[in-house]
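User: I'm putting together notes for a lab meeting next week and I want to include a structural view of one of the chains we've been expressing. I don't have a solved structure, so I'd like a prediction I can at least talk through. The sequence is below, exactly as it appears in our construct file.
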Amino acid sequence: EISARIVEAGIGQWSGEAEADDKTLIVRGQANLIENSTAAEDLERIRKLLHLMGIRVQSVDVHKSLKDDATELKFLVRIPVETDLNELYEGLKSLGRIDRIELKEKF
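Assistant: Thanks for the context. Below is the predicted structure for the 107-residue chain, given as structure tokens.
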């Protein structure tokens, strides 16, 4: 299994109890992908807003464009049913520097 090899290589570890079904694999060293301090600040501001709204971040993908030096952040989150999506949208837009917000439902 890939996750077992990541742990054996020393670049990841499991969080939660060893026998739990809901444990999470945490891969270390990924913060170094965000060299742009503005992107790192944006990431932290978005995380704080989501936390305040009771939305847990499951993962963050960072895509760096070599062409125009842009950084794209993609968040995988679980949004509670009772969350006001308009409030979430307005909160994210108020942070500035966000070009696009895309919500996708998966069941």
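A couple of points you could mention at the meeting. The mean pLDDT is 77. The two ends are 25 Å apart (CA to CA).

User: Perfect, that's what I needed.
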